[in-house]
Design brief:
Blueprint lengths: L6 E4 L2 H10 L4 E5 L3 E6 L2 E7 L8 E5 L3 H11 L2 E8 L4 E6 L5 E6 L10 E2 L5 E4 L5 E5 L2 H4 E7 L3 H12 L4 E6 L4 E7 L5 E7 L21 E8 L3 H10 L8 E6 L5 E6 L13 E4 L16 E9 L2 H10 L6 E3 L3 E8 L2 E5 L1
Parallel strand pairs: 1-4, 5-8, 12-15, 16-19, 20-21
Antiparallel strand pairs: 2-3, 3-4, 6-7, 7-8, 9-10, 10-11, 12-16, 13-14, 14-15, 17-18, 18-19, 20-22, 22-23
């Protein structure tokens, strides 16, 4: 035997090739149409469209300097799934491609460095317990995701923006008299939904600013997300003790267009730690969950990620709430990859 070349399955080999060359710095070895080979140094990978394996494969690649590579790939626009961390075997980072394949790039560990957290294939983050032991410390966003919040200057503009991108028109939700807002909703699978929210000109202005920075928005964008938890008060107290205040729990209410009243408890959405990357917590109690009525108006959520100029601080703030979200270094942004009538698109 001489060498191994992992084969990674991709949905669109041309898009994958552009990513590997432009964002990861590989060069084209050869091109056979639906199958290509790319290389960087002594590392060679084959990319094949719709065949040979499954998306989501993992490859370990030895590199000279994981930190230098991290900075280079970050500048190129690569998706850094997990920044460099020290383990007993290497100093390693994780880089993902558009199809969910993960490249683990590792160099020699730093002498006497404390072991870092580990991010597994399910998105669970494990904190170190010793030289070679880890225990799970947080959970991936999906089990707790209640809804994504897309703010807009007006509801018509927000609904049109999402329909233009996805081909799916949101259903009317209801009004929030205490906030001076109204919303429209689209399902995101079982137990989750996208909320499009905007000022409601038919309601009296609220005594203070509307939540999510709605009064200052000039264009639709994802502004935050909500996590559904059964222990809202305990999590809020624990997060506050760790320096991440979520605000005192408050009551929310609205009436659906079909007359069904909804009531819930939530932490203060105006607090917005880490510029909205840390979600507000919500508990619907005995009310029907909004997603239950959205089965015919639904998109598939396939990825949700964020960027922040201080990604380590954002990671720690999320962990204080018992949650985790892929975060790369960059301007404050939330991005949701969804699939609908117009294929896969990104809401940001």
């Amino acid at each position: 035997m001489h060498a191994a070349a992992p084969i990674l399955r991709v949905a669109d080999v041309r898009a994958a090739l552009r990513y590997y060359i432009g964002a990861l710095g590989f060069a084209l070895d050869w091109d056979a149409g639906d199958m290509v080979s790319v290389g960087r140094g002594d590392c060679h990978l084959m990319l094949v469209q719709g065949d040979q394996g499954r998306p989501g494969s993992w490859v370990w690649i030895g590199v000279g300097d994981a930190d230098a590579l991290h900075d280079e790939l970050l500048a190129r626009g690569a998706f850094i799934r997990h920044p460099p961390q020290d383990y007993y075997w290497a100093r390693e980072m994780q880089v993902a491609d558009p199809d969910g394949n993960v490249l683990r790039c590792g160099s020699e560990p730093r002498p006497d460095a404390a072991p870092g957290a580990w991010l597994d294939m399910h998105g669970h983050r494990w904190r170190p317990t010793g030289v070679d032991g880890h225990v799970r410390s947080a959970e991936w966003f999906r089990p707790h995701l209640d809804h994504l919040v897309l703010g807009a200057p007006s509801l018509d503009e927000g609904v049109a923006h999402v329909e233009r991108l996805t081909g799916m028109r949101a259903r009317a939700g209801g009004r929030h008299p205490q906030w001076g807002t109204h919303n429209a909703l689209i399902g995101l699978g079982v137990g989750a939904y996208l909320e499009i929210i905007a000022p409601d000109p038919s309601l009296p202005p609220p005594p203070g600013p509307r939540p999510f920075g709605l009064d200052a928005l000039t264009a639709p964008r994802l502004v935050t997300w909500a996590a559904r938890v059964p222990d809202l008060d305990a999590r809020a107290e624990r997060a506050a003790a760790l320096g991440v205040p979520l605000g005192a729990p408050i009551e929310g209410r609205r009436v659906r267009d079909d007359g069904v009243p909804l009531a819930w408890r939530l932490t203060d959405p105006a607090v917005a730690p880490c510029d909205g990357l840390v979600p507000f917590l919500i508990d619907w109690g005995a009310s029907p969950h909004p997603s239950a009525s959205l089965t015919e108006a639904s998109l598939d959520l396939v990825a949700f990620e964020a960027s922040h100029p201080e990604e380590a601080r954002a990671w720690d703030a999320l962990e204080a709430v018992g949650l985790v979200l892929p975060i790369r270094r960059g301007p404050v942004t939330l991005r949701a990859k969804v699939v609908g009538p117009r294929g896969q698109v990104v809401l940001g």
